[in-house]
Structure formats: C-alpha cells, structure tokens
Specification:
The structure is a single chain. The chain is of the alpha+beta class and about 400 residues long. It folds into three domains: about 120 residues, no CATH class; about 120 residues, no CATH class; about 130 residues, no CATH class. The protein is built from 13 helices and 15 strands.
C-alpha cells in the first residue's frame, strides 16, 4: 500500500508524501506517524530509533510528536516495511522498495524525544475507524479462503491480489492484523482474540488456520496442517517475551493429526440427499459403537453417562478405553458409556480418568462448562467385573498427559 493510502485509513492527509512521515487528523484528533517495522521490539510495545540519519520529514515529525505530548493526543501508526533495512539505516530509504500498512490496534505515547533519538511506547487498545467496519465488517475468513485457494506457500502480495479479485469491496489495509489473527506461530495473534485462554493448536480452535514462514518481506503463508507443521503454542519465555514454539509430539497428537488429514480423503460419492443422510448416520453409528458392544455397555451403566449422568440414549456412546483393535477389545471392562461430546474429549486426550477414578481435564477446557467436571468421581457399573480396567485407564491417562506437555 502507498503511504498516502495508509494515512487516509486514519483520516489523515500527507501534504508532502515524498518526505513527510507524520500528520494530524481531526476526527478524531490524533497524530498519525509512519514508523519502520524493524525498529519495533518483537511484540510491538516499544519503538526505538536513532534519527540522526533521517533526511526530510524529521522536523515535521518532531513538531507533531511535541503536539501529542502537549495536548495528550494518541499516536496512531502506519507501519513501514523496507525490502532492504540496511538502506534505511544509512539514510537511503528511497532507494529500496517500501510498503505501508496502518496498524489499527496500536495506540502510543512519547517516552523520549531527543535531538537524534526517539522512543514511543504502545498498547494494543486501538480500533479501526467505524466507517471502515461499516463498509467491510470482519473479513479474516476471506484471508483463510485465499490462502487455501492459492498455491502454497503464498505471499501477502498474492493474497491481496486474490482478495481484490474475489472480494473487491474489502479494504486490505489491515491484512497484516487479520493474517496474524489466524496464524498459529505468530505471537501477535494474542492481541486480536483477548477472550481466548489457550493458544495450543491441539484444542481444535476454528481460527488456527494458517502457518507462517520467514520474516518481513520474505514472509509466506500456507494452510496450517498439524501433520506437517506439528502443534504450536504461544507462551511468555523466561525473559517475559512471548514466543511461538512447537509442542513436543505425542502419540495421541500424531494420531489426531493423521486422522484430520485423512478424514475426508476417501469419502463415498454423495449424489443425492439420501446418500448424504446415509453417510451422516453411518458416522453417528460408528461413534455410538458396534450394536452388541453398545448394548452391553448401556446395560452395565444403566443407560446413564458415566461422567455427566445424561440419560438421553440417542447421544450415549460406547467409548473404548484402549482403541478398538478387533473383537477382543469389545470387552465391557474396556468400555465406558459416555455422552457424545464427552466421548470426543476423552478420545482427544482433553479429559481423562485418574487412578482414584476422578475426572481430570486439560487446561484448554478451563473457563468452559467442562471445568465443572474436574474432580468428579466416575460412575461405575454395579457389578465389579464390569468396572473399567485400571491398566487401560492408566494407559489412556498417560497418553492424555503426554499431549499436555
């Protein structure tokens, strides 16, 4: 994006775009500045730069920053990215290709303003102008659609071109923020989804969609595939800085990733509504369990979910503790009657049963309705020989715990 277009996104006008890098907008009144991406710290909470080598625009910038200090005006940012940052350091920014993008989330204030040094602190408390929301609305799903459609890996420029063709009404000014929002290994995504408690990608979150490689101009994006990229998490390091790191690979996570890749590879042809219904009901029957085995488990547990107490038989499933490997695993002590959603969490290793027959949950379930299940005691069949095999429960619990690391 050109610098003038980026400033217009904030309602600001650059009188001399060839050399000016700051302006003041009136509605609302705020100072808009263009700052180099390479001079921000990693989480973009601080911008620090020497200005001795700046040619043109410095005096206007300093005047606008002093105005912000005197009137308490917020500082909004157009982030400039240089193809060759060395040229910028040497005072030759015009000799390299530069791109400009408004960052609507950042709001800053001057920390230090000296003759040849500048420091600005930022918080992510900003929003895009209301007029932009009225025109475009939330559109990060369009970016996911673009990356899925384009050959992998793809660049921001190709994504913009695809969006221009397929969604010409969308503004592409905040493409960097929307890409970060969906990218599993981008530490900045945490600023755009404040309600989210965990960033682990093995929790099945719908916005874990993209994977990023490279930095700055060399950045590329591709659809996130756990079988290829592994699972990721975001956490602060020992120095307090947030990091994206790959989770250790567990047996359960590998199986889950492979299953996700293969789930829809060999679907039968669906040429009618009847075929579609058969396919859907077949999947339900498979989850409920083989007929005789399910009947035995229903009888053993009194047609009541062993964890929730649910008595709606249509959603009760005969869950294997040790995965099904043939008729010899169709044993009552290798089964538990679970409500369908609890069965899914059990198989995903997000819920398990401890030695004391108490329910344990993964951290990703904290803050959800499932947190209330933690510490509850498993309901057991009245006949002791039908109780779950402790060795089987321990094996499943260990797999689940391995996945949490």
């Amino acid at each position: 994006m050109r610098i003038t277009e980026a400033f217009r996104e904030f309602g600001a006008h650059l009188a001399h775009p060839a050399w000016e890098v700051s302006a003041v907008s009136d509605q609302p009144r705020q100072v808009v500045v263009s700052l180099w991406s390479h001079a921000f710290n990693e989480d973009m909470t601080k911008y620090e730069s020497g200005t001795a080598q700046w040619r043109g625009g410095k005096s206007v910038l300093y005047r606008h920053l002093r105005l912000a200090m005197e009137e308490g005006l917020p500082i909004r940012v157009v982030v400039a990215t240089a193809e060759d940052a060395t040229q910028v350091y040497e005072g030759n920014a015009s000799r390299t290709e530069n791109d400009f993008e408004p960052n609507f989330s950042l709001v800053g204030w001057v920390v230090r303003l000296e003759e040849n040094e500048l420091e600005i602190a930022f918080e992510r408390t900003g929003q895009a102008p209301l007029s932009r929301y009225a025109k475009t609305g939330a559109k990060y799903w369009h970016l996911a659609e673009a990356v899925e459609a384009l050959p992998s890996p793809t660049t921001t420029a190709h994504i913009k071109a695809w969006l221009a063709q397929h969604y010409p009404g969308d503004s592409r000014a905040d493409i960097a923020e929307n890409l970060a929002h969906l990218t599993v290994n981008d530490i900045n995504r945490r600023h755009y989804d404040r309600s989210r408690k965990s960033w682990r990608t093995d929790s099945g979150h719908p916005r874990d969609r993209l994977f990023r490689r490279g930095k700055n101009k060399a950045t590329t994006y591709e659809p996130f595939r756990a079988a290829t990229h592994g699972h990721w998490d975001l956490r602060p390091g020992v120095d307090g800085k947030w990091e994206a790191y790959q989770l250790p690979t567990s047996e359960l996570a590998l199986a889950e990733a492979q299953a996700q890749e293969e789930a829809f590879e060999h679907l039968p042809p669906v040429s009618s509504d009847h075929d579609a219904r058969v396919w859907t009901l077949t999947a339900i029957a498979q989850r409920q369990g083989q007929g005789a085995f399910r009947a035995q488990i229903l009888d053993a547990y009194g047609s009541r979910c062993a964890i929730t107490g649910c008595t709606a038989v249509a959603v009760l499933e005969a869950a294997h503790i040790v995965p099904y490997r043939g008729e010899h695993t169709h044993r009552i002590d290798n089964g538990i009657l679970l409500r369908s959603d609890i069965h899914t969490l059990f198989d995903l290793g997000l819920l398990w049963i401890c030695e004391q027959l108490r329910i344990a949950i993964s951290d990703v379930l904290r803050g959800t309705e499932y947190e209330a299940l933690e510490g509850k005691t498993l309901r057991l069949p009245s006949k002791k020989e039908q109780h779950p095999n402790p060795a089987h429960l321990a094996a499943q619990a260990q797999l689940a715990k391995d996945k949490q690391r």
